[in-house]
Structures are given as C-alpha cells and as structure tokens.
What we know:
By secondary structure, the chain is an alpha+beta fold. It has a single domain, classed as 2,3-Dihydroxybiphenyl 1,2-Dioxygenase, domain 1, CATH 3.10.180. The chain contains 2 helices and 8 strands. An 8-stranded mixed beta sheet has the order 2-3-4-1-5-8-7-6, with helices on one face. Strand 2 and strand 3 form a beta hairpin.
Amino acid sequence: MSEKDPKWRFCWQQLNTTDVEAAKQFYGELFGWQFSEQEMAGEMYTIFGMSEDAPLGMFQTQPSDAPSPPLWIPYVSVPDVADTVGKATASGGNVLVPTTAIPDAGTFAVLADPDGAVFAIWATANPDQEQPMPTGNNIPV
C-alpha cells in the first residue's frame, strides 16, 4: 500500500440526483463550486469542487431506476472490492449496486450497513490515483 493510496479511508463523495442541472445551480451558488462534464461508461458524469483537493462527482439517476432517493454517497478506499463486499454481507450489510468495473479506473460497489446507511467502496486500478475519477485539470478553478 503506497502513501498515495491509503486504504480504509474516505476518498470520494458522489451526489446521486434526479436533476443534475438544478443541483449544479444550487451547489454552485451556495459554495461557488465549478463543474466539468466527462463521459464515463457511456454516460455523462459531472466532476466538481473548488480544486483537485475537493473530489466530488455527480451522477444523473432516474426516479424509476434509482436504488434510493437523491443522496450523497461517501466512497471508502479498499484493497479489494469483492472481498470487502463478502465481509459486508457476512456482517449483515446489503449490496445495493454489485461490484462494477470502470475501465482503466477501478472497481466499486454500493452497500448499506445493517441499519440502512448507504456508502460505496472503491479499489483503484491505478495505485497512483486513489479517487474514482480524475480531478485537477478536469475542474476549472
């Protein structure tokens, strides 16, 4: 495990929302965040924040296919997603989104603890980049 890729810590925050444009307006006005769009697995993904030190992402969901209402999902960096999913389910957690690979980026899953609190886990494909999506040059500051 390198210093650039510590495990078991929060590494990313993602907003799942049914209205990306309204969320961009709200958070842009409230916090002064800047936004950039990029394609991820055939869909548009919004990267945002004030700088590369604020790794945030936003994803458009449809009310009919969303696993939950609009919400913020914290991501925890793990060494192995499948292994961590197994440990979570053995401990009473539930899988909301199964282990999913993002080409050239890494693997994630969305889980809920036994009380229903939602979080995601992330294992990077690149040991020099812990976060699920690139930041920095993709975010206008």
